[in-house]
Specification:
This protein has 11 helices and no strands. By secondary structure, the protein is mainly α. It starts with 14 loop residues before the first helix and ends in a 14-residue tail after the last helix. This is Membrane protein.
């Protein structure tokens, strides 16, 4: 079996991830109970920590799928421990996605795991490895939106509802953007095994710039408006209105002067 080549220590959950998970739990509790003196700080820490947790699970899904597809090297690289510091460009794996969220409320990927594709046979396996990450974002989005489409928010504090709505928005944007067939993103990884060798060689030099290209494109007002129009429509279908996500983003950016529309009692 492919898992036999990995030691138990290679699959042990990292204390770093457990620490991030603890921050998520504590700040989520503080947001729910109103314990925090400044609600915005609690929302910022809760959403940021939960977002990093989702990044770790995204990359874990890639690595775990690769392990069962034939790449037993992922264990020795630490990818199965959920430790974000083990990813390629560890600093960018944490800082860059958070910067994207602060600058535009967009869930863009940052972490990366190096898969030894030569160990894997079969185009379907290669496609599934690439799809596993964004499918995790889809699952995370379902969890975040479930209280809304199940009408289970009676008695839920406004601050927590706003934070959950904003976190759902990040997961939806991450899923959509990751599935774009742009070199360097998972969507291209899904279709790449089915392309001819010549096409892949021509596209390969552009892969390092794919993420930056998408981010730059989203700064174009017309593109940004169209993109978030689709996102808002999806969220609305799941029971989350634009007011909730707007207030979640406003609370998240606690350092800015509040508009007054999203006041939350501490």
């Amino acid at each position: 079996m492919t898992t036999a080549a990995t030691r138990h220590s290679d699959r042990r959950i990292s204390p770093v991830f457990l620490g991030i998970l603890a921050v998520t739990a504590v700040t989520g509790w503080a947001t729910w109970t109103g314990f925090a003196e400044q609600p915005g700080v609690a929302v910022f820490l809760f959403v940021t920590a939960a977002w990093i947790v989702s990044l770790c699970l995204h990359e874990y899904a890639h690595a775990r799928t690769a392990l069962h597809s034939g790449d037993t090297s992922v264990g020795a690289k630490g990818y199965l421990t959920l430790n974000p510091m083990k990813y390629t460009h560890a600093l960018l794996s944490i800082v860059l996605p958070v910067v994207f969220v602060i600058m535009g409320g967009i869930g863009l990927p940052g972490g990366a795991v190096f898969i030894e594709r030569g160990r894997i046979r079969g185009r379907w396996r290669h496609s599934l490895i690439s799809a596993a990450g964004p499918l995790t974002n889809v699952l995370f989005a379902v969890v975040c939106t479930a209280p809304f489409w199940l009408d289970a928010l009676d008695g839920v504090p406004a601050g927590f509802r706003f934070a959950l709505a904003f976190l759902a928005l990040l997961q939806v944007t991450a899923a959509i953007l990751n599935f774009l067939p742009v070199p360097g993103l998972d969507g291209y990884g899904v279709i790449e095994p089915w392309l001819s060798y010549g096409v892949r060689r021509q596209v390969e030099p552009f892969a390092p710039f794919g993420l930056l290209f998408v981010f730059a494109l989203l700064w174009v007002p017309s593109v940004n408006g169209a993109f978030f129009g689709v996102v808002d429509s999806l969220l609305e279908a799941l029971g989350i209105d634009e007011f909730d996500t707007y207030c979640g983003y406003e609370l998240f950016r606690f350092w800015r002067e509040p508009s007054g529309y999203c006041a939350v009692s501490p």
